[in-house]
Amino acid sequence: MCRHLAYLGAPVPIRQLVLDPPLGLYRQSWAPRAQRHGTVNADGFGVGWYADGDPVPARYRRAGPIWADGGFADLARVVRTRALLAAVRSATEGCAAGEAAAAPFGADRWLFSHNGALPGWPGRLGALAAGLPAEELLGLEARSDSALVWALVLHRLRAGAAPGEALADTVLTVAEHSDARLNLLLTDGTSIAATSWGDTLCHRTTEGSVLVASEPGDEEPGWIRLPDRSLLLATAEGTTVKPLIP
């Protein structure tokens, strides 16, 4: 399993979103409170963020635990952003290790993260892979269930699907082939789409900003937990929640 978050709003240091919250992503790497599968998220981490004037995000990913990377702490102190996606990883059995397997995955203007697992990986999921063109399969960033889910989402986005449609269609298709856990996050720097399917997801909206996360990063009021099997669409101005119905 994993923990992840996405943010849109006023420019803030990365540290304020990822490292400083008392119960936030940094602490969730070793002591998550709401995680239902796995206990430690030390198999890698990553952050992707957007800079003003450039629609293509930057990414910083590592294979080790977030608490062991002093360079990231220094970067997070000085880099400010209006939009971010970050994740800490608990690897699924049979999936690749290494930096390339850590979220966020990215292509074009998109950042993506998968919190969950696909039981039966890789043996029982050939039908999913068979639906992708060969060049897209060969272009997977890593040999992992999350990278395959990302390829399925990206294929739909490039075919013209809206972000929420791409996530919903992917979740419902994958669920037909596996008893999967599919909490997904997707952003282009101006909006966030997310699904809750098998684990926790919540969001908090303040004036001009929105934060979507696997679990609350603090005890402050305003956090709203999504029902399981839901699709969340969010901008800095507000959120919409819809049921995911097979």
Automatic annotation (TrEMBL):
Residues 2-246 form the Glutamine amidotransferase type-2 domain. PROSITE patterns: GATASE_TYPE_2. InterPro entries: EgtC, EgtC-like, EgtC_Actinobacteria, Gamma-glu_amide_hydrolase, GATase_2_dom, Ntn_hydrolases_N. CDD domains: YafJ. It comes from the Bacteria. It catalyses: gamma-L-glutamyl-hercynylcysteine S-oxide + H2O = S-(hercyn-2-yl)-L-cysteine S-oxide + L-glutamate. It holds the Pfam family GATase_4. Keywords: Glutamine amidotransferase, Hydrolase. Pathway: Amino-acid biosynthesis; ergothioneine biosynthesis. SUPFAM superfamilies: N-terminal nucleophile aminohydrolases (Ntn hydrolases) (SSF56235). Its EC number is 3.5.1.118. NCBIfam families: ergothioneine biosynthesis protein EgtC. HAMAP family: EgtC. Catalyzes the hydrolysis of the gamma-glutamyl amide bond of hercynyl-gamma-L-glutamyl-L-cysteine sulfoxide to produce hercynylcysteine sulfoxide, a step in the biosynthesis pathway of ergothioneine. This is Gamma-glutamyl-hercynylcysteine sulfoxide hydrolase. It comes from Kitasatospora kazusensis.
